[in-house]
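We treat protein structure as text, and this decision shapes the records that our systems exchange. Below, we set out a record of this kind in full and without editing:

***
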Amino acid sequence: MGGYTNFFTQNNDGFNDYWNIKGINRSGITVNIYDRFGKLIIQLDALERGWDGLLNGREIPSDDYWFKTYLDNGTEFSGHFTLKH
């Protein structure tokens, strides 16, 4: 299983501008990101660049967000991270 950063900054400085699970190099792995109320924000394929902190093209608040990663062998991994503006 890959790792993940505890935060990302979305300020286009080239560091921590996107959030995703790191170290996964195969398709078929899904990452769902949720807000604090359990609303699905975005669903990613783990091979994508990552989440840029936008929802429907708009910035969403700096806050904690939760994720669930569904591995191709049927197991799940979850955790949380912070979006900072």
Observations:
- The first strand starts at residue 7 and ends at 8.
- The mean pLDDT is 88.
- The chain is about 0% helix and 40% strand.
